[in-house]
């Protein structure tokens, strides 16, 4: 009887670990979204970054930090399913520290890539402000510039590269498990590699922030929902085709509009 209880408890540990990792990830996501809301409330972010029309190290740092927090808040939910399953899967001789500490380097490696992307996005934001293509208080592109981004995003959504990256994002376990080893360093490298694939899949969707306004929390939530739907919904792989046609059509319409 004791042996049966021990086996039942052991079989239940991965499930409990997955639930705990998911809960912790959702809690982290909530904290990040709360930080964004506090930053964006009253258009504080737009008002502060309007000064970026005369860029300095301080404004560049503020822009990069804003993007880093935003990308972490938007992309962590999409990473939680594979993160919780992989980190909580028992493997002989692997992760003696336990699944919870095993999840940390995976997520850190993943978010490192998005941190690098955030720096590039912040630099693009300051460059567009210098060219007077962004509205300072909403950080939104105007006219044909917005149309160009919509068209580019739409074409990327239906491209073979996007399809290949999304396929790996939706089923990353073969690549991840093949490269798995004990200790935090391999976990970090695996998270980093998966982050590269994820950026290849989602960078064009993130660029839409310049179309809808970087300080628009509602649209950021919509983009987060689209990313999660593409990655985890049963037929999410079909969504980029529909979305790509819609985005490209909207981009062409804006580019063709007078003025």
Describe the structure.
The protein is mainly α and 259 residues long. It has one domain (2-256). The chain has helices at 2-40, 44-49, 57-88, 99-130, 143-157, 160-170, 173-178, 184-207, 209-212, 217-232, 239-256, and strands at 134-135, 140-141. Strand 1 (134-135) and strand 2 (140-141) form a beta hairpin. The longest helix is centred in the first third of the chain and has 39 residues, at 2-40. It is globular and about 55 Å long. Residues 1-11, 42-47 and 92-97 have low confidence and may be disordered.
What is the gist of this entry?
This protein has 259 residues and is an all-alpha fold. Helix content is 78%, strand content 2%. It has one domain (2-256).
Supply the key terms.
two-stranded antiparallel ribbon, single chain, 78% helix, 2 strands, 259 residues, globular, mainly alpha
Blueprint of the fold:
Blueprint lengths: L1 H39 L3 H6 L7 H32 L10 H32 L3 E2 L4 E2 L1 H15 L2 H11 L2 H6 L5 H24 L1 H4 L4 H16 L6 H18 L3
Antiparallel strand pairs: 1-2
Helix pairs in contact: 1-3, 3-4, 3-10, 4-8, 5-8, 5-11, 6-8
């Amino acid at each position: 009887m004791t042996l049966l209880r021990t086996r039942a408890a052991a079989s239940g540990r991965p499930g409990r670990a997955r639930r705990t990792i998911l809960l912790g990830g959702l809690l982290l996501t909530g904290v990040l979204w709360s930080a964004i809301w506090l930053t964006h409330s009253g258009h504080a972010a737009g008002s502060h970054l309007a000064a970026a029309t005369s860029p300095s190290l301080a404004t560049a740092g503020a822009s990069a930090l804003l993007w880093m927090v935003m990308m972490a808040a938007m992309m962590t939910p999409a990473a939680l399913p594979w993160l919780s399953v992989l980190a909580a899967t028992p493997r002989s001789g692997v992760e003696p520290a336990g699944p919870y500490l095993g999840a940390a380097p995976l997520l850190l490696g993943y978010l490192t890539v998005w941190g690098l992307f955030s720096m590039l996005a912040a630099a693009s934001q300051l460059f567009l402000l210098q060219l007077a293509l962004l509205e300072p208080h909403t950080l939104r592109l105007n006219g044909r510039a917005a149309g160009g981004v919509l068209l580019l995003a739409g074409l990327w959504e239906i491209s073979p590269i996007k399809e290949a990256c999304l396929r790996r994002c939706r089923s990353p376990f073969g690549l991840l498990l093949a490269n798995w080893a004990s200790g935090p360093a391999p976990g970090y490298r695996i998270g980093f590699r998966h982050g590269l694939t994820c950026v290849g899949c989602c960078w064009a969707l993130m660029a839409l922030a310049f179309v809808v306004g970087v300080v628009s929390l509602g649209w950021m939530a919509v983009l987060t929902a689209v990313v999660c739907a593409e990655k985890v919904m049963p037929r999410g792989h079909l969504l980029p085709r529909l979305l790509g046609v819609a985005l490209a059509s909207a981009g062409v319409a804006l580019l063709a509009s007078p003025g």
